[in-house]
Design goal:
Largest sheet of chain B: 6 strands, mixed
Shape of chain B: globular
Structural class of chain A: alpha/beta
Number of helices of chain A: 21
Low-confidence stretches of chain A: 580-584
Oligomer: heterodimer
Structural class of chain B: alpha/beta
GO molecular function (chain B): indolepyruvate ferredoxin oxidoreductase activity
Helix content of chain B: 25-40%
Number of strands of chain A: 22
InterPro entries (chain B): IorB_Oxidoreductase, Pyrv/ketoisovalerate_OxRed_cat, Pyrv_flavodox_OxRed_cen
Mean pLDDT of chain B: 93
CATH superfamily of one domain in chain B: Pyruvate-ferredoxin oxidoreductase, PFOR, domain III
Distance between the termini of chain A: 32 Å
Largest interface: A-B, 64 and 65 residues
Strand order of the largest sheet of chain B: 2-3-1-4-5-6
Distance between the termini of chain B: 26 Å
Mean pLDDT of chain A: 96
Organism (chain B): Clostridium thermosuccinogenes
CATH topology of one domain in chain B: Pyruvate-ferredoxin Oxidoreductase, domain 3
EC number (chain B): 1.2.7.8
Radius of gyration of chain B: 16 Å
Protein name (chain B): Indolepyruvate oxidoreductase subunit beta
Strand content of chain B: 15-25%
Chain lengths: 584, 190
């Protein structure tokens, strides 16, 4: 039976069909839907949102050594977090098969960098597969488990945004009955002390030799077409673009296994064609290898290492095509950057931060949007959890007075992911930083995943809830305050007080995400004739409030009725309009 | 079997993903090869969003490129303007006559372009505009804008109406099927 599936859904299906029983992940675009689909559709698989990618991978390793097939999914920057276990997992190898899904984001649709995960496969000496559509997503995951068990190693399957988030047809099959492998205590294999690890490293090198031979013979790497003029070596989404451009006018070496690369296959293919292209997104990973074999090839001298490729770009850059432009109607089309949603609880916090003119070390989540106009209240954002360490570092560099104008701000899920270690640093090393945790009861930006602070598991089952107040107190924070994000006055007072306190503090700014199903505001607001056009409400940056030049209007199709703007209005000009925005 | 490149453009939160999901189902039922490329994550928060839907005997790239779209289904006027250069010569534009101000306009750093629809129609004769928001409201739920627009789109293809209706029933959550079918019919009647 054929089904139309997202790449990520097909990965979930592949894991199911392969007999996987443990799936772990930390959500991150574009990888999130893999584990969401496993949790939703396949009750045979235990699944979890782990606190971060490192723990997710360690859980998967435990499951594998215990004899199960396990899968662990993350976005590209998540693999940085999981890199520590990854490199030594390569030495220990597996018992039940273990597959790591990593989703890169060329073009940075939803990321802070566009690193190329293929280098992780190379430096950790772990094989990597790369599918080019949803069918391959499913098939390659199953093959990856076979490789994992045959060669006693983890296997990374790399997706990119356009593979993970494109739907295409998938032939679904039955799940295999996978019998747990016996658990065998083997400290020479699983306890990586120097004496054992030295021996394992030899085994890893021998394994790489065998995998290189496998890469030359596997059907994951295949030659298509008969052209002797043009040859294209490519993989993943770049294969689809290249097919679109060259069609039958070129031969293709379509690589499904991108590490280790098939040396003999590449040499044979290159010797058959007059002009050889390597078409790949991001870094010249395949190209550098081909060049190292002494083969002449055209690639990144013409194609960019930044951003995504497209069929048009390949036509223009490689074939010199001059493509027609459509008639322009408007030259200056206003941009439409993402914004915090109407009703977003973060809006209250940002209003206060702007008013107090504080230096804000930001973090990764919906609230990163507070960096954009009109709030413009964020000075830095580097990676998950970085806000706290950076605020601490700023104070250590420039002294206490500088610290009094500086805060760290991050979400509940981000705090658990890797903010907590930064907070311990502040306490231990006598810092005074003020840390604001935006607790909106959910992991927001990735599309509403539960986390250890929400009290629910990935399956929506009630569980023990991490108490942020007690947690902060337990690591030595004496000043912990909880404030409603929409109580602007109280929030202002608390933040003012805490930045001036000569000890570290945690402010939990609390209000659930307005998109959550159980959040119900009544009706929408509208503006009456008491409005004096003072524009106070506009400073909130709510997309439902529109400046008409001489008056302000509320777009009732957008307003959710959170009433934050009413609180700011000094003329009682914002009042309830109706109930016609019932949640769908 | 014809090749059909469709783009669905709009503002994050308007329901473009549901529309593309229905469209994908329709294509599958009609035995097309099909690829649907979506945007998840950050731009879903009120940003400019685009979904590409390509159908044909065999589809490689999931992306529709500039000058290649047979149909653009625009949920908002400014977004129609933004993505218009993707329309092929003689391609069809279906545009919802709704204005959602982007943040630069809201804070008066930029102006919302005036008279978008007449100016588009001057250069792109094959344009249908409609007030899908009002139609959806009449049908009972303003969130059904997406199925109103799907109705108009359905009329512009030669795929059987029943296939669309079946797909809506399969994709839309059960309790919203009735209002969405009503919205679809209203769009189809335009």
């Amino acid at each position: 039976m054929n089904k139309l599936m997202l790449g990520n859904e097909a990965v979930a299906r592949g894991a199911y069909e392969a007999g996987v029983t443990v799936a772990t992940a930390y959500p991150g675009t574009p990888s999130t839907e893999i584990t969401e689909n496993i949790a939703k559709n396949y009750s045979e698989i235990y699944s979890e949102w782990s606190p971060n990618e490192k723990v997710a991978l360690e859980t998967a390793i435990g499951a594998s050594i215990a004899g199960a097939r396990s899968i662990c999914s993350m976005k590209h920057v998540g693999l940085n977090v999981a890199a520590d276990p990854l490199f030594t997992l390569s030495y220990t190898g597996v018992n039940g098969g273990l597959v790591i899904m990593v989703a890169d984001d060329p073009g940075m649709h939803s990321s802070q960098n566009e690193q190329d995960s293929r280098y992780y496969a190379r430096s950790s000496k772990v094989p990597m597969l790369e599918p080019a559509d949803s069918q391959e997503c499913k098939d390659f995951v199953k093959t990856a488990f076979e490789i994992s068990e045959r060669y006693d190693c983890p296997v990374i399957v790399r997706l990119t945004t356009r593979i993970a988030h494109s739907r295409s047809l998938v032939e679904v099959e039955d799940r295999i009955e996978y019998k747990l492998k016996d658990y065998i205590k083997d400290y020479n294999k699983y306890v990586m002390m120097p004496g054992m690890a030295r021996k394992r490293h030899e085994i890893v090198e021998k394994r790489m030799e065998e995998l290189r031979e496998f890469s030359d013979s596997t059907s994951l790497n295949r030659v298509e077409g008969t052209s002797k003029d043009i040859g294209v070596i490519t993989s993943g989404i770049a294969y689809q673009y290249a097919k679109e451009v060259f069609g039958d006018n070129a031969s293709f070496l379509k690589l499904g296994m991108v590490h280790p690369l098939p040396e003999k296959l590449i040499r044979d293919f290159a010797s058959e064609v007059k002009t050889l292209y390597v078409i790949e997104e991001l870094e010249p990973f395949i190209e550098d290898f081909v060049k190292s074999l002494g083969i002449k090839v055209i690639g990144k001298d013409l194609l960019p290492v930044t951003g995504e490729l497209s069929a048009r770009l390949i036509k223009e850059r490689l074939l010199g095509a001059k493509l027609p432009k459509a008639p322009a109607i408007e030259e200056n089309i206003p941009g439409r950057p993402p914004v915090m949603c109407p009703g977003c609880p973060h809006r209250g916090t940002y209003y206060v931060l702007k008013k107090l003119k504080l230096r804000v070390n930001g973090d990764i989540g919906c609230y990163t949007l507070g960096a954009l106009p009109p709030t413009e209240s964020m000075d830095t954002c580097v990676c998950m959890g970085a806000s706290i360490g950076m605020a601490h570092g700023m104070e250590k560099a420039r002294g206490r007075d500088f610290g009094k104008k500086t805060v760290a701000i991050l979400g509940d899920s981000t705090f658990i992911h890797s903010g907590i270690t930064g907070l311990i640093d502040v306490v231990y090393n006598k810092g005074n930083s003020t840390v604001i945790i935006l607790d909106n009861s959910i992991t927001g930006m990735t599309g509403h995943q539960d986390n250890p602070t929400t009290g629910f598991t990935i399956k929506g089952e009630p569980t023990r809830q991490v108490d942020l107040v007690k947690l902060a107190q337990a690591i030595g924070i004496d000043r912990v305050k909880v404030v409603d994000s929409f109580d602007l006055k109280e929030l202002e007072n608390v933040i003012r007080e805490e930045v001036n306190a000569d000890e570290p503090s945690v402010i939990i700014s609390q209000r659930p995400c307005a998109l959550l199903k159980n959040v119900k505001y009544e009706g929408t607001q509208h503006i009456n004739d008491k409005c004096r056009y003072c524009k106070m409400c506009l400073s909130l940056g709510c997309p439902a409030l529109v400046d008409r030049g001489d008056h302000v209007e509320i777009d009732e199709a957008l307003c959710v009725g959170c009433k934050l703007c009413s609180k700011l209005c000094r003329f009682d000009a914002i009042e309830k309009a109706g109930d016609n925005n019932a949640k769908a | 079997m014809q090749k059909l490149n469709i783009m669905i453009v709009g503002v994050g939160g308007q329901g473009t993903l549901l529309a593309s999901k229905v469209l994908g189902h329709v294509a599958m039922k009609e035995s097309y090869d099909v690829k649907v490329s979506e945007v998840h994550g950050m731009s879903q928060r009120g940003g400019s969003v685009v979904t590409y839907v390509k159908l044909g005997p065999k589809v490689y790239s999931p992306l529709v490129e500039k000058g290649e779209a047979d149909i653009i289904l625009a949920f908002e006027k400014l977004e129609a303007l933004r993505w218009l250069e993707y329309l092929k010569d003689g391609g069809k534009l279906i545009v919802n006559d709704q204005e959602i101000d982007p943040m630069p306009v809201i804070i008066r750093k930029a102006k919302y372009p005036e008279n978008i629809l007449p100016r588009i129609k001057e250069k792109y004769a094959n344009t249908i505009s409609l007030d899908a928001l009002s139609i959806a409201r009449q049908c009972g739920n303003i969130k059904a804008v997406n199925t109103v627009l799907l109705g108009v789109l359905a009329k512009s293809t030669n795929i059987a109406k029943e296939t669309w209706i079946e797909s809506i029933k399969e994709v839309v959550p059960a309790k919203f099927v009735d209002v969405n079918l009503k919205a679809f019919e209203a769009g189809y009647a335009i």
